[in-house]
Design goal:
alpha+beta, 3 domains, four-stranded antiparallel β-sheet, Topoisomerase II, domain 5, 15 helices, three-stranded antiparallel β-sheet, 45% helix, Gyrase A, domain 2
């Protein structure tokens, strides 16, 4: 009877409505599970699962075959090893327009700005968690992040990490989902840190411009007629000993495309460029040979190499509440500061509770020794009976006390306990101050992100 009712209910839904609903659900699935990064840790699900797998393997410290890591990641990300190895390789790329601050360190060939797709087979490359990922605090407070079950409910994985800075703004992020796309340019760590400090001091975060490591070409950041921000990149040139060198190309331009443009320029009439000599290795260094008697300036070369690349900024992100939202850079920084403070309050409350427990345990151990329970134990038949006696004597940590070896039942141990209590009280006061006083919490955040900036943007 129930089956007939379900079939009747389904048949009453118009086909186009059912199609639209299915399309909406699939679109949101692709956004959440594949294409759109989280606003807090800046990671797509596959990237988060890669880092989580590496943290729980030897790749936490040691270079490990990329193909091996991909196999382990499949325990969390069941979408095929090719997609995973591609994602790992992309996270290890450290050239211009790839990652300003890679979260994965790589050994081997992972492409370059001349040819980003020139990546060696995952059998021949090795990866581990980068020093920056560790310094950024991705794994600093694992007990204080939220978890969810993996796809087959055999283990747990993070919903998202809570690093020290919004990684979503650091590295270039591109994603295409059904009905949505995402393009978030890279930014300089110093600019993000300075903006965070302004927010924590209750000032406007201000505007920050896109930035890419080692890019020496022409760039501009502007708003188009449709209200979208656009980041434009062009060619860059350097002059050395009266010779001009092409040293940078627009974003998304690979070497072959640059060479084709050079050949086209040389074939034109009235061009001052007669030929070129390509000295490029992993970066652009193309010597421009000018015609005899030609005089050229950097501005003149910009006119000849007038091609540019325009990237429309679309900052679609998944918020910490799981909502799909198009946020401005300023709003992302504000949201991150709020989430970071919530995370730290949880962390410091947990640490304070541990210090409080340490005080209680040491006080009970002092009482245990002074009341000479090590002598009373001689008249007790077994551990269970001993624990019962301790429990009746109002000892809270009776199980722990019953496991302490006899050699610790000394006056010297009492002195150690009192010292431990003094230190624990000091730390308890410190942690309580951090989660109870907003000014102290803000100072803690400012100090940690300033130290991160000083190390990585020196």
């Amino acid at each position: 009877m129930k089956t007939k009712q379900i079939i009747k209910k389904q048949s009453s839904i118009a086909f186009h409505d059912q199609l639209n609903n299915d399309q909406k659900r699939y679109s949101r699935y692709v956004c959440d599970s594949r294409a759109i990064p989280n606003e807090i840790d800046g990671l797509k699900p596959v990237q988060r699962r890669i880092l989580w797998t590496m943290w729980n393997s030897v790749a936490r410290k040691y270079y490990t075959k990329t193909v091996k890591i991909a196999g382990l990641v499949m325990g969390y990300h069941p979408h095929g090893d090719a997609a995973i190895t591609d994602a790992i390789s992309a996270m290890a790329q450290d050239f211009t327009f790839a990652n300003n601050y890679p979260l994965v360190a790589g050994e081997g060939t992972f492409g370059d700005v001349l040819d980003p797709k020139a990546v060696a087979s995952p059998r021949y490359t090795e990866v581990k968690i980068s020093d920056f990922a560790l310094d950024a605090g991705l794994f600093e407070s694992i007990p204080d992040i939220d978890y969810t079950a993996n796809y087959d409910e055999t283990s747990r994985e993070p919903v998202y990490f809570v690093p020290k800075v919004p990684l979503v703004l650091l590295n270039n992020i591109t994603g295409i989902a059904t009905g949505f796309r995402c393009h978030i340019p890279g930014h300089k760590l110093t600019d993000i840190v300075n903006s965070m400090i302004k927010v924590l001091k209750k000032r406007s975060p201000g505007a920050i411009k896109p930035w890419y490591k080692n890019f020496s070409g022409k760039s501009s950041y502007w708003r188009n007629d449709n209200g979208f921000m656009v980041y434009t990149t062009g060619f860059g040139f350097k002059k050395k000993d009266k010779t001009f060198y092409l040293t940078a190309a627009p974003q998304s331009w690979h070497r072959e495309k640059v060479i084709n443009l050079l050949d086209d320029i040389i074939s034109r009439k009235n061009t001052p460029v007669k030929n070129y000599i390509d000295h490029s290795t992993s970066n652009y260094k193309i010597e421009l040979v000018l015609k005899k008697g030609s005089r050229m300036t950097s501005a003149g070369l910009q006119e000849i190499f007038a091609k540019v690349n325009n990237e429309i900024i679309v900052q679609n992100v998944i918020t910490d509440e799981g909502k799909l939202k198009n946020d401005s850079t300023a709003q992302i920084i504000k949201n991150f500061c709020r989430r970071r403070k919530i995370h730290l309050v949880r962390r410091f409350k947990r640490l304070a509770a541990l210090e409080s427990e340490k005080i209680s345990k040491n006080n009970e151990l002092i009482r245990f020794i002074k009341e000479k329970w090590n002598q009373k134990v001689l008249n007790i038949k077994n551990r269970k009976q001993f624990e019962g006696r301790l429990k009746r004597a109002k000892f809270k940590y009776f199980e722990w006390l019953s496991s302490i070896p006899v050699y610790r039942m000394t006056i010297e141990e009492v002195a150690k306990c009192r010292k431990a209590i003094t230190e624990a009280k000091k730390m308890l006061k410190y942690y309580q101050g951090l989660y109870k006083q907003n000014s102290k919490l803000n100072k803690f955040i400012i100090d940690e992100i300033t130290a991160l900036k000083d190390k990585w943007d020196n």
